[in-house]
Amino acid sequence: MSPESTGQNEHYIRVLRRRFRAWRGHRPFWAGLFTMVGGIPIAYFPYASMTLGNMTLAMSTTAGAGSLIIGVLLITLGLTMWYHSIVRVFAGVAAILLALISIPVANIGGFVVGFALALVGGALSISWAPGKPESADGTPLAEQRDEERSKDELHAAAVPQQQGSGYDLAVDTDGGGHRAG
Hints:
The chain is mainly alpha-helical and 181 residues long. The protein has helices at residues 12-25, 29-44, 64-83, 88-105, 107-111, 113-127, 151-158, 169-173; strands spanning 49-52, 55-58. The chain has a two-stranded antiparallel sheet with strand order 1-2. The longest helix is centred in the middle third of the chain and has 20 residues, at 64-83. The model has no long low-confidence stretch (mean pLDDT 78).
């Protein structure tokens, strides 16, 4: 056995990359990224101007404030997906609705680029689910063979749990009579 630990000699970039992968694995990372990137063109294009020689081409419309609000809200929802993944379904639905609203308000949804990215981000957020917990030996419970599981685990998986506190029909019927009579 070596007195030197293998973890001490790792390069800091490798350690940071591993930490980022662990952080990314516990939240809808790609959903938040697509939603935030989709909000940028929606907010930017109504305020953009391009110069061609002496001619200035401005994309500004009367709905510039609405476009800015939609873009900022999409960026905020993307950050919400990252840091509060418990509300991922709400954030996904809100991102999809804002993407749809951006079509008439924000230059066809940021020239379809922002609309498509926000729509994909919202759909990814709704469909994301946290991973299944692993058992003590490191393999997921769903991948264990029945011979490897204990009898208590097999019994709990085979017998459905009762819902509620045991509802009794005889108490509710009042002997077949009506409550008023």
